[in-house]
Amino acid sequence: MTFRVNFYAEQAFLSFVKKMIEKTESGSEDETEVSAVCVLACAAALESGVNYIFLNYTNNTDFDKLNIKSKIEYITSSSTEKIKWSEGFWQNIILLINSRNWLAHYKESDIGLINSECKWIKDDSNEIPKIDPNHVLNISNIKKYYESTRSALKFLIYTIKGDLITHEYLDDEDYSPLIIG
Question: How far apart, in whole angstroms, are the C-alpha atoms of residue 126 and residue 158?
Answer without folding.
Answer: 46
